[in-house]
Design goal:
It comes from Paracoccus limosus. This protein has 14 helices and no strands. The protein is an all-alpha fold. It folds into two domains: 72 residues, no CATH class; 218 residues, Orthogonal Bundle (MetI-like fold). The mean pLDDT is 82.
């Protein structure tokens, strides 16, 4: 296990190093000049040159990259060109919305997907299996922004149980949690559908193994064999999907954040791109890439905990 952790940690460090290089290179190649964008088309050449020098845009790319990398390693991700505030503080502020939202959506997805996937696998080929997988297919096909607006109409406008949008901040914990319920449900529905279908397929494949037939021969019912033996061994592909889903929920909730007017990280990146705030874009994308790599690292460790054969 120790060897696995060391190997994965070295791979994680290398991946982060490559990711920083790629992110800075790609953002730097974006057409246009941030200084010209900030000053407008009527800016004087000397004013434009002074701003470029202040922003470090007159330096060679390798020098700018090493400066930015050194700043990140010391916790300084630079200052936003548009908002004139530290990027690290802005990202942390937005993560206070995006991270709880992603966690809530993932927990809801798991709470829905596991009973549905297990019930469908235990009743393979029956009408119940067809109905459950049909509902899951509808969940995959249903646009989450349309479902989000439907939730707002029902639970916010008509019933007035939950707020239609906005985020009051964590100074009011109950109000903050209530404001995240509808967007979390809207995000969880398609993820639960994908996870349920993946779990059903993995369980059905596992139920065909010899050790499951031996358990059935000893008197266990199909449902008992599924819960006691098949589920643990079917979790490998499910964990892979869960890791991918959490990364998506953390970074890809831009539409839902806009529907509910949530000040999340995805919305911040969208605004930064529109304002050509390259420092903010680089910092936010780097945080998301680092989170994705760390999640993949955690999933690899979870594989080894579930299946000892993967610890070699």
């Amino acid at each position: 296990m120790r060897r696995l952790i060391i190997t994965r940690a070295l791979s994680l460090g290398l991946s982060l190093a490559v990711a920083t290089l790629v992110i800075f290179a790609v953002v730097d190649m974006v057409p246009g000049d941030p200084a010209s964008y900030m000053l407008g088309t009527g800016a004087q050449p000397d004013t434009l040159a002074a701003l470029r020098q202040q922003m470090g845009l007159d330096l060679p790319w390798p020098v700018r990259y090493l400066r930015r990398l050194g700043g990140i390693l010391t916790g300084d991700m630079g200052t936003s060109l548009a908002y004139k505030t530290p990027v690290a503080g802005m990202i942390m502020e937005r993560l206070q919305v995006s991270l709880p939202l992603a966690l809530m959506a993932l927990m809801l997805a798991v709470a829905l997907a596991f009973p549905i996937g297990m019930a469908a696998a235990a009743r393979r080929g029956t009408a119940a299996d067809t109905a459950l997988m049909g509902a899951a297919q509808i969940g995959i096909a249903l646009p989450n922004f349309w479902f989000a607006m439907l939730l707002v109409m029902v639970f916010a406008v008509n019933l007035r149980w939950l707020p239609a949008g906005g985020f009051p901040g964590w100074g009011h914990p109950l109000a903050a949690l209530k404001s995240l319920i509808l967007p979390a449900v809207a995000l969880a529905l398609p993820q639960a559908a994908v996870l349920a279908r993946t779990l059903r397929s993995a369980l059905i494949e596992t139920l065909g193994q010899d050790y499951i037939r031996s358990a059935r021969a000893k008197g266990l019912s199909r449902a008992q064999a599924l819960r006691r033996h098949a589920l643990r061994n079917a979790l490998i592909p499910v964990l892979t999907i869960l890791g991918m889903q959490f990364s998506f929920l953390l970074a890809g909730a831009i539409i839902i954040e806009n529907v509910f007017y949530l000040p999340g990280l995805g919305r911040l990146i969208f605004q930064a791109i529109g304002q050509r705030d390259l420092v903010l874009v680089q910092g936010a994308v780097l945080v998301l890439v680092a989170a994705t790599i760390l999640i993949a690292f955690a999933v690899d460790l979870a594989y080894a905990l579930i299946d000892p054969r993967l610890r070699g």
